[in-house]
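Bench notes, afternoon.
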Amino acid sequence: MRAVHLLALSAGVLGVTPALANDDLIKQIANPAQQVLQTVDYANTRYSKLDQINTGNVNKLQVAWTFSTGVLRGHEGSPLVVGDTMYVHTPFPNIVYALDLNQDGKIAWKYEPKQDPNVIPVMCCDTVNRGLAYADGKIILHQADTTVVALDAKTGKVVWSVVNGDPKKGETNTATVLPVKDKVIVGISGGEYGVRCHVTAYSLKDGKKIWRGYSMGPDDEMLIDPEKTTSLGKPVGKDSSLKTWEGDQWKQGGGCTWGWFSYDPKLNLMYYGSGNPSTWNPKQRPGDNKWSMTIWARDVDTGQAKWVYQMTPHDEWDYDGINEMILTDQKFGDKERPLLTHFDRNGFGYTLDRATGELLVAEKYDPVVNWATKVDMDKSSKNYGRPLVVAKYSTEQNGEDVNTKGVCPAALGTKDQQPAAYSPKTQLFYVPTNHVCMDYEPFRVSYTPGQPYVGATLSMYPAPNSHGGMGNFIAWDNVNGKIKWSVPEQFSVWSGALATAGDVVFYGTLEGYLKAVDAKSGKELYRFKTPSGIIGNVMTYEHKGKQNVAVLSGVGGWAGIGLAAGLTDPNAGLGAVGGYAALSNYTNLGGQLTVFNLPQ
C-alpha cells in the first residue's frame, strides 16, 4: 500500500484535485491480484481476470487457512485484499480485522465500534453487513447504526466519522458504500419502519455532506429536474412523485437504498435501485408510489437524476428493487451498446441502455413467476414498460385481510441482494436465485416512528410442481432474455457469485457448501462443506504468485433469520422462518473465513 500513500502525497503537493487523485482507485480496481470493492469493479461484474485456478484443476482445491470472526448471525459480503493485507468485516457489532497475509493471517489491527444494541431489533432481516470498501488509504465502513467511518488502512485509527441516520426512527444500514472520485456514496435501510430513504454523498477526505437525493417527495429533494430527468425516454414532468401518493404518505414512503451501487466513469453516472414503498399493505397507499421500486441513474458530482425506470409501480408484494445493476458493453441488435442488466426481486431480468434508460429486454428468469404475465414492451401502449398484473395474485384487488395464495416469487424475490456475476468470455450472467412462492395477507397498520410499519402476514414455501428445492443457480443471456442452463438447489442460493477467467464460477449454499461450476455448462467441478451456511460472496485474490479463493460462512440473512435469531414461529422473520425450517438439519451458526488454494 506504500505506493498508494506516495501517490496521494504527490497529488497533494502538486495541487491535484481529489477527483483526479482517485485515478489511483481505478488503478487499484484494475489489479486482479487484489479486491478493493465488494463488487470487484465499478461495473459490478464480479469477474476476476485470475486464471491460475481453472476448469482443469479446480477439483484439487484445498483449505489453506481459516479465521474465526468471533461473531454469530449472518455474514454477508466478502473480505477485501489490498496489497498484502486482508480486511474482514462482521455483522453487528461490525468488527473490522486487518489480517497480514505475509504472516498467515496474523491480526495487524482490529476496530470494534461501540454501538447501541437497541439497533438490533430495528434491523428487519438479520444484523448483516455487506462489507467494506477501500479508497485513498482508507477502509470505509457503514455501521448498522448508520455511522459512516473512514479508518486508516495501515493502523485502523478513525480518520473521520459521520452519522447518516437515526435508528430511533427505524433508520439503519446493512449495505456497503461506493467510493468514487472525491466522494463516498451511501444508502439507508428502514422501509419496514416507514423511513423515507435516500442516497447521500460525503467527502472522502473529511466526511462532509455534499448532496442527498431522496427516493420520493418534492422534485428538489429527489434531485430530479422535471424537464431533463427522463423515464422511458420522456421527461418525468413536475411533481412526478407527489402526484402518485395520497396526501403526505410519501413522508413515510420507504424506497430504501440498501443494495449495491455501480458507476460508469465515461458517463459519470452511478446506478442503483430503490426498494419497496411503505407499508406492505397496498390499500393504504393508492397510486404508483414513485419513485420506489426504481432503477436510478445519477450524476455522481451533483446527484442529479438523469433517468429513472420504475419496475413495479404500486408494489403489492414487497418486491424491493435494490438488486445490483451490472454494466456491460455488448452487441445488441446490430450495434455495440452500453448495457445495464438487473435481476429484480419481482422475477424479471431487465436489460436497459444505461446512457438513455431505454428498456430493451424484460423477461422472467424463473419460469414459475406468475404475479404478472409479462412487461408491456409496446412503445405505443399506455402501459409501456409496466408489468401486466394477474388479478388472481393482486393483493390490492383481493383486499385487506384476504390471504392471496400461490404468489410466485415470494417477497424475498426470485433473487434478493445476493449479487450475480458476468463473464465477458461467455457473455453470460451467473445468477443465484430463490425458487420460492408465498401466501400474502395485507392488514391495516398505523405509522409510529421507530415501530414496525409492515402491514402484511406472509408464509413461504418451495415453488410447487418443480424440483422440490427452494433455489436454482442459473446462467442468463441478457440480450435474448433466456436461461442458458440451470442447476437446482435444495435451498435458496443466498451467496454472491464470482466468475473467473479460468472459466470457473463459484458460489456458496445455505447448507454451507462452496461450489465451483463450469462457466459454459454449469457442470459441478468442486464442492467443500464449510462450518456454517454461506450467505457471503465468494472472492479471489493473488498472493506471492498464488491464486486464492475466499468466502465467509455464517448462516443468517432473511432466509436464515430463524437460525440466526432463534425464531420458531413459522410466520416470523416476515414469513421466512417456516419456509426455511429444514435448514437447521444441515447447518448451524458460526462466523468463519475459509481460504482455498491449489496444492504446491
